[in-house]
């Protein structure tokens, strides 16, 4: 796939600092709509451009390299699209055309299905009712919730089975909290969505009930690793620029470039030949790469890089997001091993 148009790259880059620090919806999203990129994940029969898996990864990585906040918002929208594409025909027809055109915005709230709450019980509960379900509890991590027409949420039934439903945000009993003040990506307007006796008819069920409705990998897949790779690409490009006048950075930039290229090849191979264990391994490596490359960029930038709005400080903060976003235990253990001193 061709890189993003230069004008779009510049718009993403120029707005990246504000999107990271301010609670304003990134204006670059409208530019992406005009460029037709919002239609990329949607099938042609619904007005989309039907990008293949490699095309989607290339596009998302390119957006992340210029503005991770915008890329994160799109990743949550695209995750909702993937769930809709697997759902019943009437829900595809209801939502996918508007998502392709940009007239609708949907997002997801699935972290409560993959994050342990020890003895507190499920965060979002679904109780069967005649003709549907009643939702009570909360989806604790929903990006763009106050901008969404609906949220694809996961809930747990009394027998511990799970289901996915489309939750229209204007339903009685739905409350969207004020956006959280995150350490980065503040423009994503990530909030808690609370449900108090929200009635959902059977026609809004996307998947389930099932024991593990999200499958073996859970909520974190190739898309998360791909955004970490995009962030790394920005830091590596900065180091390559610095290396033109600083010979000591030439081998540093070269090693990081080689690692990024290898990770990209593995990601793209897995997009067409899935392997749950390999997906987790590449997630570990992409997270490590994001942490290393952004720290090295900050080191190379020296004191100037620690001052807002220099991008090095932003990249370094954003890299830590991958330690908490869709980070299942095998990934956390793999990253932890890299962070601990030798001989412990």
Automatic annotation (TrEMBL):
What's the superkingdom here? Bacteria
Residues covered by the Acyl-CoA dehydrogenase/oxidase N-terminal domain: 16-103
Under the heading InterPro entries, the entry gives:
Acyl-CoA_Oxase/DH_mid-dom_sf, AcylCoA_DH/ox_N, AcylCoA_DH/ox_N_sf, AcylCoA_DH/oxidase_NM_dom_sf
What GO molecular function terms would the record report? acyl-CoA dehydrogenase activity; flavin adenine dinucleotide binding
User: Which PANTHER family does this UniProt record tie to the protein?
Assistant: ACYL-COA DEHYDROGENASE (PTHR43884), ISOVALERYL-COA DEHYDROGENASE, MITOCHONDRIAL-RELATED (PTHR43884:SF12)
Query: What's the protein called, per UniProt?
Result: Acyl-CoA dehydrogenase
According to its UniProt entry, this protein's organism is: Limnoglobus roseus
